[in-house]
Amino acid sequence: MRRVIIIGSGPAGLTAAIYAARANLEPIVVASSVDAGGELMNTTDVENFPGFPEGVMGPELMAGIRAQALRFGAEIIDDDAVGLEVDGIAKRVTLGSRRTIEADSLIFATGSAPRKLGVPGEQELSGRGVSYCATCDGFFFRDRVIAVVGGGDSAMEEAIFLTKFATRVYVIHRRSGLRASKIMQDRAFRNDKIEFIWNSAVREVVGEDAVRGVVLEDTVDGVVRELALDGVFVAVGNDPRTHLVHGKLALTPEGTVFVDGRSSRTSVSGVFAAGDIIDPTYRQAVTAAASGAAAAMDVEHYLASLDETIGILAESQAHEEVLAEEAAESGRTIVHNTDAASWQRDVLDADLPVLVDFWAPWCGPCKAMSPVLDEIAAAHGGRLRVVKVNVDENIEIAMTHQITSVPMMKVFRRGAAESSIVGARSRSALEQELEGYLA
Ligand SMILES: Cc1cc2nc3c(=O)[nH]c(=O)nc-3n(C[C@H](O)[C@H](O)[C@H](O)COP(=O)(O)OP(=O)(O)OC[C@H]3O[C@@H](n4cnc5c(N)ncnc54)[C@H](O)[C@@H]3O)c2cc1C
């Protein structure tokens, strides 16, 4: 049983691990069996992560963050999470190896994947002119001719952003109209550097070491042509990796994991989420890392309040047990006899004299006696215990003590019946009869 499990080892997961490890939470990171390190493992130069004035290679940056997490004591397992149980207080993660790990809390940081075109040349030229992130790579295309593939809001946003660097930005779209909002369309249409290529699908990305162009097919007449380009930005959507939490955590309309306001708290107590999996907007390494830090701090607060609650519960349980013991010993509380064991404990083994009221549910005078006995118990608790025995439910005890009518009261001392009182009484009359015991 661990304090926190982190699923995902991109900037969000590993930064959460650094913070959690430094808070002595001994995090365990499920890093993935093939994609450990996240999206930045697929990129070359990262020029916008703070602290690297000359830029840094994606894999090098991730190796550094991983080493930092290990240095503070995080445990990293290069395996996949294949199953999750998040409903109980303990969160359970099943790994690809079929091993199950458990913790008081969970940080879900599985990132998101940009949708691919799935055409020849795309994979081979990824990072060599094919990009999925204008904010990350736009700077490398100063004075170049590039294209954005897509027709939604983010495609328009990327195209407009890229006009800061490129001399010409083609927007390639398979239909004759855009999905983007009117305002984004208007902005793109007004931009002189943007040119739209309608009804066109990319069939291939061409180039050897770098992108040289794309092969386009007209979706109306099927004509194929080549367009010369220095870069292709694919903006056809993004898929948050949520398959593990479908039906378990609430999602947003964009398909990301829902979190409460600026926090990392998901719809399930003790489960937190960080990075691109909660972010339909920024999706940068630095924002993912910041989100991981916030998640670890949220976990710390959650665990502190969980510990406090468990402490309070344990204390109140212990307190209740002490009260019950005291009550049984002092005789202040009315004890209802239920079986032979409680008869032995509450009557025969009692340190105090015990006034046993034998009663029955069908007996009217018994009902009248009941509050009188309650008053006697309250007033003389330290000197006398009152035990009520329903004869219908305790026939053997009633027979053993020759109960032939109800209400009948007997005073027991040191395990033996000393006196009997038959019939209902007023409180004062009963107190008089019990005088010898109450002194
Ligand atoms: C090509 C490319 C270039 C980019 N360049 C830059 C850049 O220059 N600068 C920048 O700031 N941002 C860049 N980004 C964006 C940046 O990579 C992301 O914003 C960032 O990596 C998100 O971090 P994350 O930790 O949320 O998710 P990810 O980096 O996606 O990491 C998620 C991790 O979770 C793992 N995972 C998923 N499911 C499971 C599972 N079931 N079990 C175990 N592990 C699992 C994945 O394998 C992965 O390791 C780039 C993105 C791409 C695609």
From TrEMBL:
Indicate whether Oxidoreductase appears among the record's keywords: yes
What is the protein name given in its UniProt record?
Thioredoxin reductase
PROSITE patterns xref list:
PYRIDINE_REDOX_2, THIOREDOXIN_1, THIOREDOXIN_2
Known EC number: 1.8.1.9
Thioredoxin domain: which residues? 313-439
Lineage, highest ranks first: Bacteria, Bacillati, Actinomycetota, Actinomycetes, Micrococcales
Q: Which UniProt keywords apply?
A: Disulfide bond, FAD, Flavoprotein, Oxidoreductase, Redox-active center
Q: Which gene encodes it?
A: trxB_1
Q: Which InterPro entries match?
A: FAD/NAD-bd_sf (IPR036188), FAD/NAD-binding_dom (IPR023753), Ferredoxin-NADP_redctase_2 (IPR050097), Pyr_nucl-diS_OxRdtase_2_AS (IPR008255), Thioredox_Rdtase (IPR005982), Thioredoxin (IPR005746), Thioredoxin-like_sf (IPR036249), Thioredoxin_CS (IPR017937)
Q: Which family would the database say this protein is a member of?
A: Belongs to the class-II pyridine nucleotide-disulfide oxidoreductase family.
Which of the seven top EC classes does this enzyme belong to? oxidoreductase
Reaction(s) catalyzed by this protein?
[thioredoxin]-dithiol + NADP(+) = [thioredoxin]-disulfide + NADPH + H(+)
What is the annotated quaternary arrangement, including any partners? Homodimer.
